[in-house]
Amino acid sequence: MKIPRVDQLNIGPRLALSFAVITILMISGTALLLWQFHLLRVQADELTGISRELTTVMRLQSSLLAIDAKLNELVQSDDVDRLARESGPLRAALLRETQRARDDLSRLPTHTYIEPTFLPTLEVIENTLPSQIEAITDLARTGDWKAVRLRLANENKPLEAQTSALVNSLDQEVRDGMSKASLNIASLQQRILLVVSVTIALILGFATVFGWTITYSITSPLGRLVEGSQALARGEFNHQVVVTGRDELAQLSAVFNDTAGRLRRLYDDLRSREEKLREGENELRQLIEFVPTHVFVLSPDGSALSANRPVLDYHGVTIDEWRADRFQRDIVHPEDLDRYSAELQSGLSSSQPFEIEARLKRNDGEYRWFLSRFAPMRDERRTVLRWYSARADIEEGKQESERARHENLVLREEVNRSGVLEEVLGSSKKLLRVLLEVAKVAPTDSTVLILGETGTGKELIAQAIHRQSNRANRPFIRVNCAAIPPSLISSELFGHEKGAFTGAQHRRLGRFEAANGGTIFLDEIGELPPETQVSLLRVLQERQFERVGSNQSISVDVRILAATNRDLEAAVAAGTFRQDLFYRLNVVPILLPPLRERKSDIPLLVEYFVARHAKKAGKNFRQIRKSTLELFESYPWPGNIRELQNVVERAVLVCEGDTLYVEDAWFKQTPPPAAASPPPSPHLQPPGATEPRSLGRLEPDRERELIETALVECSGRISGPSGAAAKLGIPRQTLESKIARLGIRKNRFRTS
Q1: What is the Cα–Cα distance from 363 to 330, expressed in whole angstroms?
Q2: For 291-393, which CATH class?
Q3: Which residue has the higher pLDDT, 66 or 562?
């Protein structure tokens, strides 16, 4: 059904027109009702005016009758004085009543009908009655009361008759007006009912017709659009929606038809591409079947979808058995199953490519190492559709890697064993005993207290312990307790919170937090103030501490190495060092011998320091005076190795030429007495070790002889505890440098 002209308007103007017409009809009906009510009001006003006019006339008639009765009473009394006295008030009362009647007439509505004889009657009364009263009074003074009575009767009767006739006329007019008003009111009521009924009928009729028309013009195209949408949902892309007009629905239908056409072309294109893709997949599947690599496909949740022939042949299963949920877990080695499952779920949830190494069971029950690489396939919205995986057999590579790892471990152990000898120069029995103790205690987490005079290399021993420990890859933090003011030592060790003291602008982490997981070396531990000793004791006992300004405990995993040149037992006896802290620190004490007890190491140390400082100074020394070496060996060295290094550095700077020497005046003449030190225990000497030789500044031939003898005894081996470097008491790098400088061919000393 086509509605003329309606579909040419948009939906908004269409609805606005409907509301406008309904509003006009309602306003018109209301205007008609108001006009009928106005007519009713006019009729009521006319009736009210006539009633008020009748009331005025009757009140005037009553006043005239009262005045006439009063005059008759005065005339009948034959009292001239009384008549003369009261005639004046009667005239005034008469004039007031006539004036009142005029005022009432002036207040009547303008459209009120007024009796034509009413106003002339008022004028007659105003003009004649006062003069008649005065004439009657004059006649009464003559004493002819009979003539007075006769005149009064003759003059009042016509006036009374005239007012009575006026009253009757107005009364009849009022009755006629009321009758007419009643008829008019009844007629108005009928017209009001008719107007209301017609207005309601018109509004309802128009609203019904126009509303149905507009609703149909909207719902019908919408219904066709819904049918078209359902057809698109069913894949019927040839469906067209026909909507006439130029409104929004017509435009929407045009867009719908255009979209349907585009979808139809897109669907045809996708179908052709899908056929090509299916052909490509078939070709790719056939190609993958011939690839020797294991290739398989998983769903986004990890369920098996397909696998190529090498996968099925390796496991000896069919494709249905491969897709079973339990099978994917049964082929993984029990030791790798938990790790494999966790890494697989983690990789699938990350939606990023990942790899997993695991041992997979072959059809004969043997497990081999495989590397599985997983890559996601995504759609245009980056949603994972499936996972492609390729497995490569890495059994041989894994075995080779394991062999290399074992070889690296052996080599690292050998390097570690020789590393201590290279860091700590010397081969004296006391030093070897110290190094043996270091090798024993380094792998543990025990607290070590390093004792010795100043300059004996306590920090170097601490570094050696750390490098040989399981914490070698973790931090090594050094703290010199004597270099930090007592007021700041707690903040330095344990950190502080913001505002803990004046100048604490920010939170600061302490040295113990920085060393967490590693090793902390507390040098000059004997200089700690008593209050810090308490906090350090808690760290040793509970592995916990609190920052300055905080009440929150912090746990740390740190190994503590301490060193001092003081006599801590004497400090405990003097009350300056806590006894319980001393016992906690003194778990494994290591006593470093002073240099005066290591005289055999002095030539090696001198050679090392000369080489280092000469390189910095750009000099080359070929030999050392014999008297200088004798002086070095006889001097007690109260400053130990540090003092020796300073003397050698001074000599390098002062000496010219290729011979190093020192002056006797450089040394003190009253050395401190040497402290007795216990001889080394026999069990500390490595089995089969011989007294190591030391190289000083010897002649080249003598130096070559010693090196070749050591190489013969060690079968050409240079590094390691049984190598030539250890026997000669020099670092491996130094020995190799000497071998190259002297032109010694070390390969000829190796035994097959």
Answers
A1: 12
A2: alpha beta
A3: 562
